[in-house]
Amino acid sequence: MTAAALSALCLALTGCGDKQSVLFVTATTIGIDADTTPPHATIGYDRYEGYIGPSYDTGALPPVVAKIESDLKIFNPEIRQLYATGDAAELVTKSIIPGEPTPDGKMYTGSGRLTLFGTGTNIGLRVTWAGNVPESISFGYKRKEFSYIPLGSAPDPDDPTRMVDKYGSVLAAIDMGVHTETFTTSGVAVTQFFATGNAAKNLAARDPIRQRFLLEAEDAIARKCNSQPDDASAQIRQAITNNPSFAATVDAEAGRLGVSRAFLLNCDIFATQRNGLVTQIPQ
Q1: Is 35 strand, coil or helix?
Q2: How many C-beta neighbours within 10 Å does residue 258 have?
Q3: Is 2 helix (H, G, I), strand (E, B) or coil?
Q4: CA–CA dist 60, 63 (Å, integer)
Q5: What is the pLDDT of residues 88-115, one digit of tens each?
Q6: What 3-state class would DSSP assign to 74?
Q7: d(CA 182, CA 129)
Q8: pLDDT reading at 119 higher than 90
Q9: In 3D, which of 172, 199, 32 has the Cα closest to residue 116?
């Protein structure tokens, strides 16, 4: 479904939406076609995510989270998906501390007004090879993101006599890399997040996502590099998740280069340094 169709769907559904329910939907279509005679491959990826639900005076939104991650390789592709709502969405997006209370819903008070949030993504790749060398490459990428979030109003925690505006949290992110080195290793690595409410806040607080948004802000200002994360980037991020102390090694290398961790993990010009860090990952 195209982004335009997603917009039309959400607008149509608002006619049957109400403040007593939450509509959360994701749909993904993936197509891979390859042949060795002559060597060519076509990969298609289409996904839409949509949310319609109430927004409360406190700024709270009912939490939902969706994630899809795939390498979209021609041979042995891997796909991992996550879909959660309510307390489950909050729990899977944050580190659980023993004894920490589970969400109790106290924020969902006041008038509820309908909120819309959606994304639509379409990716297409076609590659032909002459021997082991790509002869021609056609790549297309189209994405649309939109949100309509009513403002709430609640007492200021620092001055209860004053009312302040409250605005619900949403988060959408996509990370993508195209690999056409050889016929057997070609693919389109894609990771997408979609979240609302406390689930969006929990994800935004996680270092890899926060660093990713920091990169986008820095890149918009400085234009120092092209964002091109690779397999080494993914290995380093996973190593930090598995062994948080490894973050110090990564940050030390970033400091030596005079850039942030986000630049080091995502810029094309630091591919050699990332490969060096991979060799230092604790076993």
Answers
A1: strand
A2: 7
A3: coil
A4: 9
A5: 888 888 754 444 444 555 677 776 788 8
A6: coil
A7: 8
A8: yes
A9: 172
